[in-house]
Structures are given as structure tokens and as C-alpha cells.
Amino acid sequence: MIATFRYEFRMQIRRPVLWIVYGLTFAVTVAGFGHTYLDLNLGGDEGREPRPAMIVSAILLTSLLPIVYGCLLADRLVRDRRLGMTDVLDTTPAGRTGRLAGKYLGVCAATAVPLVLAYLGRAAAYAVTEGEPAALGWAAVILVTTVVPALLFVGALALAGPLLMPPLLFRVLFVVYWFWGNIIPATMMPTLSHSILSANSQYVAYGLLGFGHYRELPPNVILPPGGIVYGPWPGAALNFLRPEASPAVALLWIGVMIALAAAVLLLARLHTARTES
Amino acid sequence: MRIEISRLTKTYKGGVRALDGLDLDVPTGMYGLLGSNGAGKTTLMRILAGLLRPTSGTVRVGGHDITAADGRLAVQRTLGYLPQSLGVYPDLTARQFLDYIALLKGLDSRPSRRRRIGELLETVALTPDADRRLKGFSGGMLRRVGIAQALLADPRLLVVDEPTTGLDPEERIRFRILLSRLAGDRTVLLSTHIVEDVAQTCRSLAVLDKGRLVFRGEVGELVSRAERRVWTLTTSGPAPSQGRIVAALPEGAGTRYRVITPTAPGPSAQPAEPTLEDGYLALMEPGR
Ligand SMILES: Nc1ncnc2c1ncn2[C@@H]1O[C@H](COP(=O)(O)OP(=O)(O)OP(=O)(O)O)[C@@H](O)[C@H]1O
Ligand SMILES: [Mg+2]
């Protein structure tokens, strides 16, 4: 498993396309927003303190960039078969489960490196320009509690999905899924958006990191005593998947992300066992 | 390491019976497996490598039952396998690729792993190219990476599936010599449809046809199957109609034919020394 982790990490991080695609994405967002997108100020008070500033960056980081991350991962598991590597790998005494786990963690880690670098870069820039070294500490905490669980889930999905369809088709469906299940407002149509099953960082942001205290009030919301809450959307379907954010719900979201990732990987493992005749 | 195969049958999904009640004992040393396309060679080798489950029958390798999980693991620890179509990771160098496979094979100590890889690169004459990426390698070089990969864990059993296909004559000869040198005290099972590969490397062989064993024994025995049945005949007239023509060489105004048939194919026909190929063809002759 460690060997597979090392080599899969190495092969993925050395792919020129990884750096090109992320580079282009950042270039386009800078061109579109006029700055690096992660330091976008949402117009509230968030920018004034390191914690909410880093939370905003994390929310932005996990809004659209997981699309790039997922698409870059999509060929990694099926590639072994395409390259004709499975026979050699399967005749080694290293078990398939360990190799799958090593590959998963290795390629996910490698593909996340540019995201993590961008995020920590943003934190470092904030720490320097605002004279707030605490931003780095918060960035680390937020990274681990929001970005990592989301990427673990997305990574499992992106590795396993192409077992069932060509990677190109998977990428198209993945983009559609991403907008439907993570971006669109919950009131638009029945969706997993903003629910505990969506790979967004907001449950932790509001439930665990106290982000609600910093948000500016939308005009039609009355501020509850604990600050703005994240939870059910008035008038949306599937609201039972949108409990009110609390520390417990935030931890539940982390658990759900990891459990979903494990379930998807388990299915992938069973799939490879089934296709061996 | 001895391979004992008994009543082995493999039926693929969809009903193709690739192996049909095979009984075979493979002793230590170099052993050839001949058969035409679709004879079942790859199927047999993938079963030995633990990649395919037999439909029925038993396979024991060095006493381990290959159909049981622990037996398979025990065999895989001492197995080197070169698949018919070997894949590699094109973005790794030869050395990195071997290092990765070595780690998967459980060569955990870094110094001894490095030493082993260095030796093997030397054995397969790839030392000068060791740090080049595999995507730039020729077919012959990739085959040599493949054999190096198979040898990493110093296997007692080496299973190589048509390793010489696509190699130029020099590469092929080098490869044969390498395989024979390796045989020594291990079992090397070499499958091929190129008779010459077996003739030059193996003492014993088996011949598969449509999933059944049609011959097993010494190379000389198979050659003798063609004894007194190989003829040469030079004629400027029509080709001999009797028997199976295995060669035709223009000679002067006529053509010199090599024919396998029990009786002389013409008054001027001369008996010829049979080769292993003649023996193989005589064996495969319909209605022999
Ligand atoms: N995965 C598979 N599914 C179904 N049938 C298969 C499969 N693999 C092989 N076969 C069939 O099994 C038979 C034996 O195939 P096998 O690959 O073992 O032959 P072979 O002797 O290795 O041939 P070649 O010299 O062409 O490599 C063939 O009829 C082939 O079509
Ligand atoms: Mg074959």
C-alpha cells in the first residue's frame, strides 16, 4: 500500500497536464474576477479577521475547483487496465485492497497538491499583508476539517465512476453532477446542494468554526442569537438532508464524507473482484 | 519447482472451453508449451499465475493448491510472470518501474532492492537505458524490462507467455539464451507458437491443441514423429499434391519443396532429416 501510494503519487504529480489545467483554471479565474478568486471578498465583514477570511477562501476553493480535481483523477484507476498493467500487478503478493487504498490516497494527495498550495499561499499572503500570522493556523485547521473530507469523497467518486463508463463521459456527468449536487440553490429543483451529502465546506464552517457570527445579514433573515445558521432552505425539497448546522452536525458531515468515500471504494473493489473470471 | 495439473478445465463466460481436461506434470528446468493461436496457452499460464480460476480440476505448484487463497499467495511469492502483452507505466523510467514492482513483491530493504535491480538491468543489458522513461523503449527493450520484472524476487517458477513475439532475430536469440541460462534450478515454462524457440531452449515440451494435450515428452520424441515422413522434391512442374508442403524454395528453373507425408510424394523425392517443426506439423496434421 505504501509502495502504491508513493508511485501513484509520483506519477500523478509529475503529469504536466495536472499543472497545466490548474494553471489555466487559476489564470482564468484571475482574469474573470480580477484577483485570485480565493481572496474574493464576499462583501461582508469576513475579510477583517483571519478565521472568517480563511473560511471564505475554503468555501471558494471547494466550490468549483473540485471539478478540475475530479476530472484529473478520472482516468487513474482504469488506466492500469488500459495500459495492460493489471496482470503484472495482480500476480504480485500485494493484495488488491491495499493497492486500491494506496492508489486512492496517492493520487488524491497528488491531485490536491495544487489546491492546497493555492490555499496556503492565500493564507500566507493574508498573514503577511494583514499582519495576522494566525491566518496560517486557521488555514491548517480549516483545510483538515472542510477541504480534506470533501476531496476524499470527490476523489473516491472520480476514481470509481469510470469503472462503469468511459472517463470522458464520466467527466461530463461529473460536471453536471457537481453543479446539480453542490452549486445550484436548493430551491431551484430537488437537489443535494447545501445538504449533508454535498461536498461543501459550509456545515463545518457554520457548525464548528462559528462562521455564522461573521456573516452580514441578508435583508430577509432575522439573526438568531447564535449568529446566522446554515440549515434547511425554506421551500426546498429534501430538507430532511439539511439539518441545522451545529458542532455535532459538522462532525456528522465529516463522517458522512468519509463513509461515502469508503462505500464508493468498497464498490470499486467489489467491481474489480467481479470482473476477474 | 514442480507443477502438477490434473483434469484442468477452463470454460469462459460465453461458453468457450479454452482448456479441456488437461493432465500435465512439469518438472524443474526449461519446459516448452507449443500450440497454435487459441490453443489455450495463455489461459493455462494465467491460471498458473493465479489470475484465472479454473472451472474444474486441480493445479498444484510446488505442492501448493493454486485455487486456494493461501496457496495462490504462496505461489505468487515465488512466481515470476511475463504476460503475453506486458503493460508498463510509460512515465516511469525502467529503474523506477522495476523498483515499484519490487516493492509490490515485498523486496522491502532498499539497499538489497537497488542491488537486485542493478543486477537485473545488467542481465537484460539495459543498464545504459535504465534511467530513460519507458515510453521511449522499443518492443524488444520492453520485453527485456518484462523479463527483468519477472525475475525480481528470484522466482522458483518463471512463466513466460510468448516472450519472443515481435523480436528481431538477434533479440530473439539473446532472449532464448537468457531464458536457458535462467532455467538452471528453477522451472521455466515458455509458451510460444514459434517452434524454433522451443527447439533451441527446451528438452521437454507439451503441445496443446484446442484446449487438449496432444503431445508431451522430449523434444527428440516429437522430432521422431516426422521420421521417414519428410521429403524434399525438386520439380519445375506442378507442386506435389500429396501431403503437406512446409517449404518451397526456387531452385534453378524449378522449385524445391519440403513435404511431410508418409510415402514418397514422387519418384525423384529424397528423404530428409526431420526438424522439431516437422514433428510439430506432423502432429498437427489432420487425420494423422
Ligand atoms: N477472456 C476470455 N473470454 C472468453 N474467451 C476467451 C478469453 N480469453 C481467451 N478466450 C478464448 O479461449 C481460447 C484460448 O485462448 P488463449 O488465449 O488461451 O489461447 P493461446 O493459446 O494463448 O493463443 P495465442 O497463441 O493466440 O496467444 C480461445 O478460443 C479464446 O478465444
Ligand atoms: Mg496466448
UniProtKB/TrEMBL annotation, chain A:
Keywords: Membrane, Transmembrane, Transmembrane helix. It comes from Streptosporangium canum. This is ABC-type transport system involved in multi-copper enzyme maturation, permease component. The chain crosses the membrane at residues 16-34, 54-74, 104-129, 135-161, 168-188, 248-268. It comes from the Bacteria.
TrEMBL record, chain B:
The keyword ATP-binding applies. SUPFAM superfamilies: P-loop containing nucleoside triphosphate hydrolases. One of its GO terms (molecular function) is ATP hydrolysis activity. It holds the Pfam family ABC_tran. The keyword Nucleotide-binding applies. Keywords: ATP-binding, Nucleotide-binding, Transport. Residues 3-235 form the ABC transporter domain. CDD domains: ABC_drug_resistance_like (cd03264). InterPro entries: AAA+_ATPase, ABC_transporter-like_ATP-bd, ABC_transporter-like_CS, P-loop_NTPase. Belongs to the ABC transporter superfamily. This is ABC-type multidrug transport system, ATPase component.
